[in-house]
Design brief:
By secondary structure, this protein is α+β, with helices and mostly antiparallel strands. Strands 1, 2, 3, 4, 5, 6, 7 and 8 form an eight-stranded antiparallel sheet that branches. A hairpin with a 6-residue loop joins β4 and β5. The relative contact order is 0.24. The structure holds a DNA duplex.
Length: about 200
DNA sequence: CTACCGATTGACT
DNA sequence: GTCAATCGGTAGA
């Protein structure tokens, strides 16, 4: 795999387009312990305006600061004693991001299993906090530049460029407000997609 | 300092 | 399907 990271311009577009287009791309983490990578199979968009489910809804604070930072950076937040990973979309002061909810493991499965300890393949990276544990993504990587091939980045994948019939669009999972918005994107039929079976 | 919350997960019926 | 444990991060006293 010698592809180079997606450029910043990829992230400087409509958050819905970015969430849709990240499907099929590869998330890569390089660490002294080894390299892990996975195909992105599920994302959610969090809008800059009128989206009460977004952490950016009430404006910038220390926790969500990177969400209002440069596009193509990571926004890593903690919730329920775990971490979740987003890619920041659009320019400074905007406050939109794409949550990566699930990937399909490609490289480094043994390392992922060590980090997640004894979990079966299907449970390694299905879910936003699970994939962060498998990829060793913590708050340390909050604000990290995803457009350079260092530590953590995203590459265009072999199967990127999915047709509309290969993508399902649903409500977002777990949010307690703005539940009506259809902002979750997933590769139809992929076993590593989280949520109810009927949504896979 | 304490109180509270959650874009979750895993265990359980 | 239901539900409680989990703890980092924040807000408030």
């Amino acid at each position: 795999m010698t592809a180079s990271p997606l450029p910043v311009t990829f992230y400087d577009r409509s958050v819905i387009d970015v969430a849709r287009d990240l499907l099929g791309c590869h998330l890569v983490h390089q660490h002294p312990a080894g390299r892990v990578s996975g195909r992105i199979v599920e994302t959610e968009a969090y809008l800059a305006d009128g989206d009460s489910a977004s952490h950016a809804f009430k404006g910038p604070n220390r926790k969500n600061a990177s969400m209002f930072g440069l596009p193509g950076r990571a926004y890593v937040y903690s919730i329920h004693a775990r971490y979740c990973f987003n890619a920041v979309v659009l320019g400074e002061g905007i406050g939109s991001a794409v949550l990566v909810r699930a990937v399909e493991p490609i490289e480094g499965i043994k390392l992922m299993q060590q980090r997640r300890s004894r979990h079966p393949l299907l449970d390694l990276t299905r879910g936003p906090a699970r994939l962060c544990e498998a990829f060793q993504i913590t708050r340390e990587l909050d604000g990290h530049d995803l457009a350079s091939a260092d530590r953590l980045w995203i590459e265009p994948g072999h199967y990127a460029g999915l047709t509309d019939s290969e993508v399902i669009v649903t409500r977002r999972i777990g949010v307690t407000s703005a539940q009506e918005k259809m902002l979750r994107f997933a590769i139809e039929g992929n076993r590593f997609v989280s949520g109810p079976r009927s949504w896979r």
